[in-house]
Design goal:
about 160 residues; globular
Length: about 160
């Protein structure tokens, strides 16, 4: 499935409009730009999400290994590191807590190398800078379908136990 670039102009960005559904509200934000990460975290909090921020790949890997997230928002360029490594690690390991977690890739520019690295592994992509409401609209849609993903994951677990 090809990544979608989300455009949500005209949507109401006020808190409550894009509030998460269900009890799982934790979103991992991975961005080495401290100011950008803070803006995203503040916006997520205002909309009822619980952001956890990682400013490095190593911290993001550590957090993703120990907690399941509603969604992961990952910058593709983290200084000298690449967010694509986190995406690949999560998607390739079927026992990873976040294997089925939606991943939103973000970047100021998606070069051909990054697109090739993450092809088929992300659920959406946003180009920085983007209005926070675009991400909130995207997360609201992902939050609504979380119950469906949970049911599919539970069925897979039941099938594996039966086999």
């Amino acid at each position: 499935m090809a990544p979608r670039i989300i455009k949500a102009q005209g949507l109401d960005p006020s808190p409550g409009v894009f509030s998460p559904k269900g009890k799982d509200r934790t979103v991992l934000v991975v961005d080495d730009d401290v100011q950008n990460a803070a803006i995203l975290a503040e916006t997520l909090t205002a909309h009822g999400y619980q952001p956890l921020v990682a400013h490095s790949l190593s911290r993001a890997v550590q957090l993703a290994a120990n907690q399941r997230f509603l969604c992961m928002v990952v910058d593709m360029f983290l200084g000298t590191e690449r967010g694509a490594r986190l995406v690949q690690q999560v998607r390739r390991n079927k026992t990873d807590l976040n294997h089925f977690t939606p991943i939103v890739a973000m970047s100021g520019a998606f070069d051909a190398g990054v697109v090739t690295e993450i092809r088929g592994m992300i659920d959406a992509a946003v180009v920085k800078p983007f209005p926070p409401r675009d991400l909130m609209a995207l997360l609201a849609r992902m939050s609504e379908s979380q119950g469906v993903r949970d049911a599919i994951e539970a069925l897979r677990g039941t099938e594996e136990k039966a086999a």
